[in-house]
Amino acid sequence: MKIFLIAGEESADIHGSNMIRHLKKMADFSLYGTGGTRLKELGQEQYFNINQMTIIGLDEILKKSGLIISMFKTLKEKIIQIKPDVVILIDYPGFNLRFAKIVKKLGLKVIYYIAPQVWAWHYSRIEKIKKYVDLVLCILPFEEDIFRKEGINAKYVGNPIIDNLKITCTSKDDFKRSLTLDKQITVGILPGSRRKEINNLMPEIIKAYRLIEDKYNFVLARASNIEQELIDNYTKNTNIKVVENMNYDVMKYSDVLWICSGTATLEAAILKTPMVLLYKVGKITEIIGKIVIRTDFIGLPNIIAGKKIIPELIQNDMNYKNIIKYTNSILENKSSFNAELEKVSNYFLNLNPSANAAREIYSFLNI
Fold first, then answer.
1. Per CATH, which fold does 172-345 belong to?
2. What is the pLDDT of residue 94?
3. Distance from C-alpha of 363 to C-alpha of 143, rounded to nearest angstrom
4. Which pLDDT band holds residue 18 (cuts at 50, 70, 90)?
5. Is the CB of residue 261 less than 8 Å from the CB of residue 299?
6. Phi, psi values for residue 90, rounded to 5°
7. 277 touches 311 (CB < 8 A)
8. Among 261, 260, 257, 240, which Cα is nearest to 249's?
9. Are 189 and 219 in contact (CB under 8 A)?
10. Pairing relation of β-strands 275-279 and 135-138?
11. Taking a C-beta distance cutoff of 8 angstroms, is the pair 219, 187 a contact?
């Protein structure tokens, strides 16, 4: 058997390799396509690396247009040459949906793992998925119904972020002891993994910290791709502990989180830790967002719950006064926040998403 897999980002390399590892236990196959070091270690013959393929925003699309055209051309040639049994596309919708059209015209089977979030924006993509994809593997519980109602073969397999929730400390006491935290309550700060997010959020976070610094422990989880110097610009002359490679410990053992909108909010919800969601973007991005985004909320815990179970502080609402206000509200009503988060967590716990995805792919290929 021959499998052609397109992973265009770091997360796709992680989730794709976890799934392929399970699939290798079920079937013998050769692996081709694009990816990173993890997929390469599993024997993937790679034609492009994720470092080349990371493209964010219109500027980069224009700058890398030559590379993008080359990728489509080369990958099509390789597919014609290899004649794979299936093409698996992971996330990366701007590229992968166009590539699915090419693949389908060649008469090949297409599986999409980590489907485009059509429920949030770009619902028009549903037509392309219907035309060019044979099986969609969903990672959010409500997505299967959305796709099935449109006549698309879809299956919820669980969310692969579960595979990465690695906790190093054995208990809250162990966590506090290892970081020499001496106060009862801990506020965890996760300001994002992009420079712009950090620069947008940290000024108000530091203002909020200054007003309550004597009451709580403060621990900031620095993303590994963010240089220490950028964080130091904000945390110098503070008692904020800055840690790296402890994101999930900070999520699990903090009493409340100040957290940038994104996947981290779902990870925190699965770990059942209350949070204040923070997000701020430029004015033009805000205007575009209001036009294209179809959801009432931006936080995944709220979207999944279908109601506001965590406060969302966005744009002008993202200020130090509101951060403190909602922190106090959470700490005063922690049990009710925990109960709502537990309902969200239950959608994901006790599932093995990578193994489930592998089983669905194996079953599909053996029809």
1. Rossmann fold (3.40.50)
2. 87
3. 20
4. very high
5. yes
6. -115, 115
7. yes
8. 257
9. yes
10. unpaired
11. yes
Q: CA-CA-CA-CA torsion for 116, 121, 124, 130, nearest 10 degrees?
A: 30
Q: How far is CA 300 from CA 247, 314, 339, 341, 354, in A?
A: 18, 14, 16, 11, 20
Tally the residues of the chain: 367
2-158+351-365 and 172-345: same fold? yes
Residue with tokens 């035309």: 131
Check pLDDT > 90 for residue 119: no
Q: Which CATH number fits domain 2-158+351-365: 3.40.630.10, 3.40.50.150, 3.40.50.2000, 2.60.290.11?
A: 3.40.50.2000
- What's the rounded Cα separation, in Å, for the pair 75 and 344? 39
pTM of the model: 0.82
CA–CA distance, 75 with 108 (Å, rounded to integer): 14
DSSP one-letter code for 160: G
How far, in Å, CA of 262 to CA of 193, rounded? 10
Residue 324 has which token pair? Answer: 């403190």
